[in-house]
Design goal:
CATH superfamily of the largest domain in chain B: MetI-like
Structural class of chain B: mainly alpha
Strand order of the largest sheet of chain A: 6-7-8-3-9-10
CATH topology of the largest domain in chain A: Rossmann fold
Largest sheet of chain A: 6 strands, mixed
Distance between the termini of chain A: 46 Å
Number of domains of chain A: 2
CATH topology of the largest domain in chain B: MetI-like fold
Order of helices and strands of chain B: HEEHEEHHHHHHHHHH
Helix content of chain B: over 70%
Largest interface: A-B, 27 and 22 residues
InterPro entries (chain B): MetI-like, MetI-like_sf
Largest sheet of chain B: 2 strands, antiparallel
CATH architecture of the largest domain in chain A: 3-Layer(aba) Sandwich
Number of helices of chain A: 9
Shape of chain B: flat
Number of strands of chain B: 4
Subcellular location (chain B): Cell membrane
Strand content of chain A: 25-35%
Structural class of chain A: alpha+beta
Number of strands of chain A: 21
Radius of gyration of chain B: 26 Å
CATH superfamily of the largest domain in chain A: P-loop containing nucleotide triphosphate hydrolases
Membrane topology (chain B): Multi-pass membrane protein
Number of domains of chain B: 2
CATH class of the largest domain in chain B: Mainly Alpha
Helix content of chain A: 10-25%
Strand content of chain B: under 5%
Oligomer: heterodimer
Radius of gyration of chain A: 25 Å
Protein name (chain B): Spermidine/putrescine transport system permease protein PotB
CATH architecture of the largest domain in chain B: Orthogonal Bundle
Distance between the termini of chain B: 53 Å
Number of helices of chain B: 12
Keywords (chain B): Cell membrane, Membrane, Transmembrane, Transmembrane helix, Transport
Order of helices and strands of chain A: HEEEHEEEHHHEHEHEEHHEEEEEEEEEEE
């Protein structure tokens, strides 16, 4: 990215309260979001949000993660003002905006379908928000030119909307929202319509834009990989209730319940049938866990396992048979049979013997890597 | 030379085949248009420039008498009757089309927001009344608007009309009849335009600081403009030439151009005058279409709106 345009340049054109021009990149006064007891119902039976309390810090890249129907999009639409909460309060930058209609909120959205206006040129699309706010044409043009350079749109601005590819539309939609310099940018699964390669490229681009602007981003996705790559913090939602809030590593390594663990991609979950101090009895056998908590479910993360050839006696050593091996170049994934249970393991391939299917091995895991959680 | 000689003959064979192909595909339609549009129009034109015979049929010599009569010059000097009829036709067309637009927009929008399986049923409900004969429906309005009916009495009580006059016959009844009759022709093209519109665009406009009114003006309206213009053509042109509704609901002071023309052809009155009236209607319609194209172009941001 070019270094001639900085976030401060963009910021210096902002009207109102958010920052003064002489402040630098890092001094942008981003806005916080506070939600209290948000409830939303559709019809009589469908509960979309069932009491959401959440605080999003200024300048955070915050992700709402969950399966479809978990309420994440509803929550985003309430932030945008496109949906009204049945109950609860919402404040942005300390100002209560629960009752404020969408067109009076300093919040802009990148829609899942992008929702570009097909009857307008790209340039007019970008200037739409500025025009609605009554900025004079010269000012609009200057700001559109600046954002076009910042997002590196190049000659896209002079093309008709219907001649843009998916990735180009996505970037125009992002620019159309950012040009207004909102307090908060909302993104509703903005990358879900793109193919995998473009998607990871735009993930990186989006992340860089957010870091340079220091703006508060609220991002909605159902893809836990995407959430982990992008976010400062993640909130996992299910059934209209927040299950867990935390940085990606915390949510991945210490999920609070079986739902979060499964949603973050964990399969190695086993009931704890008996417990004597740090000794846990599970269908895999007896295991020692240190500081694993009091939950009734044991989580073994696949990357914490080690495989030793043959049978090696020792603490936290389990005899197993390899039933499947997926070679992935840098690492390999194994499916292991222990008694009637199966266990997934992911191992780095660096300088090691790769156990074959059918080979007898010993699974080893460190006591401090074991976590228990509630059902 | 033998070699080059082959190509032209092959090419001419191809051209012959193409010409024959064109003849078979175009000829039936072209014949139809010539017999039922071009010839009758030419005949109508010719009639308009002929003299009126003793039984109302056209005669030689050629004359401009019917255009003079149409302009209001009669045996007793100039009278404004025909001019009033023209102005009334224009007025009724503009008012009823305007009302149809105002009523049809919310209906079309509402139907487009309903669940997909309800939409065909709702469209059907809009269209079904027009399956009944127009004369019968218009008689229905006569009964509804006649003196001593609830609607007329309500209008009387509100002081809108004099006692025992009834709402029919009147120009108001004609407007009402036109609006009722042409509503489906506006709802359908507008619905088609709304259905293509992504609902997220309305939200995007609001998200980008547009109030509901401005969201409609800047995001919705331009995209429904082709549907609106198609609807106006479907409504305004037949309304301008409408015969049945002013005949039944208008009374003596509700006459429109269609009635003027029809009267000249019926009862052996004056065919050349009727033909001149038809030409006047045609010219007025062309002017209207031309004006709409210009307006549509301007509203559509310079984009060509095909009617």
């Amino acid at each position: 990215m070019s270094d001639t345009i900085t976030a401060a340049d963009i910021e210096s054109r902002a009207e109102g309260s958010t920052a003064s021009p002489e402040q630098g990149d890092s001094a942008r006064q981003a806005s916080s979001i506070e939600m209290q007891g948000l409830h939303k119902r559709f019809g009589r039976d469908t509960v979309a949000l069932d009491g959401v309390d959440l605080t999003i810090e200024p300048g955070e890249f915050f992700t709402l993660l969950g399966p479809s129907g978990c309420g994440k999009t509803t929550l985003l639409r309430i932030l945008a003002g496109l949906e009204e909460a049945d109950d609860g309060r919402l404040a942005i930058g300390g100002k209560d905006i629960t009752e404020v209609p969408p067109h009076k909120r300093s919040v802009n959205t990148v829609f899942q379908s992008y929702a570009l206006f097909p009857h307008l040129s790209v340039r007019e699309n970008l200037a739409f928000g500025l025009k609605m706010r009554g900025l004079p044409p010269e000012e609009r043009e200057a700001r559109v030119a600046k954002i076009a350079e910042f997002i590196k749109l190049g000659d896209l601005v002079d093309r008709p909307v219907d001649q843009l590819s998916g990735g180009q539309r996505q970037r125009i939609a992002l620019a159309r929202a950012l040009v207004n310099e909102p307090d908060v940018l909302l993104l509703d699964e903005p990358l879900s319509a793109l193919d995998a390669g473009l998607r990871s490229q735009l993930q990186v681009e989006l992340l860089r834009v957010q870091k340079r602007l220091g703006m508060t981003f609220v991002f909605v996705t159902h893809d836990q990989q995407e959430a982990m790559v992008m976010s400062d913090r993640i909130a996992v939602l299910n059934g209209g209730v927040i299950q867990q809030v935390g940085p990606p590593r915390e949510v991945y390594e210490h999920p609070v319940n079986a739902f979060v663990a499964r949603f973050m991609g964990h399969d190695n979950l086993y009931p704890v049938t008996a417990r004597h101090g740090a000794r846990l009895t599970t269908p895999l056998g007896e295991l020692t866990a240190e500081g694993a908590g009091e939950g009734g479910l044991l989580l073994i993360r696949p990357e914490t396992l080690d495989l030793l050839p043959g049978e090696v006696a020792g603490d936290n050593h389990l005899p197993a048979v390899v039933s499947e091996r997926l070679y992935r170049g840098s690492h390999a994934e194994y499916r292991l049979e222990i008694g009637s249970s199966t266990l997934q393991a992911t191992l780095n391939n660096r300088g090691r013997h790769l156990p074959e299917v059918g080979e007898r091995v010993t699974v080893s895991v460190a006591p401090e890597d074991l976590v228990t959680l509630s059902e | 030379m033998a070699y080059t000689g082959v190509t032209p003959s092959a090419r001419s064979r191809g051209m012959v085949r193409e010409a024959r192909h064109l003849l078979f595909t175009v000829a039936p339609g072209a014949t139809w248009i010539v017999i039922f549009l071009v010839l009758p129009s030419a005949y109508l034109m010719a009639v308009a420039f002929m003299s009126n015979g003793p039984y109302g049929l056209p005669e030689m010599p050629l004359s401009l008498e019917s255009f003079r009569r149409l302009a209001g010059f009669g045996f007793l000097g100039w009278s404004p009757g025909n001019l009033y009829t023209l102005l009334r036709s224009l007025w009724q067309t503009v008012v009823s089309t305007g009302l149809v637009v105002v009523i049809a927009y919310p209906i079309a929008y509402y139907i487009s927001t309903c669940r997909a399986r309800w939409r065909p049923i709702m469209l059907l409900l809009v269209v079904v009344p027009s399956w009944t004969n127009q004369v019968i429906r218009t008689f229905g309005w006569m009964n509804l608007l006649a003196p001593a009916t609830p609607l007329s009495e309500l209008a009387e009580a509100l002081g809108l009309i004099n006692a025992n006059m009834g709402l029919y016959p009147s120009n108001f009844a004609v407007t009402l009849g036109l609006v009722y009759n042409f509503l489906p022709f506006m709802v359908l093209p507008l619905y088609a335009a709304f259905e293509k519109l992504d609902a997220a665009q309305v939200e995007a406009a609001q998200d980008l600081f547009a109030s509901p009114v401005r969201a409609f003006r800047h995001a919705v309206f331009p995209q429904t403009l082709p549907g609106l213009l198609a609807g106006i053509v479907l409504v305004a042109i037949p309304a301008f030439g409408m015969y049945v509704i002013p005949e039944l609901l208008g009374g003596g002071k509700g006459m429109m151009l269609g009635n003027l023309v029809a009267n000249q052809f019926a009862g052996g009155a004056n065919w050349p005058l009727g033909a001149a009236g038809a030409i006047l209607m045609l010219i007025a319609t062309f002017i209207g279409l031309f004006a709409m194209r210009r307006i549509g172009k301007r509203l559509g941001g310079g984009e060509e709106v095909v009617i």
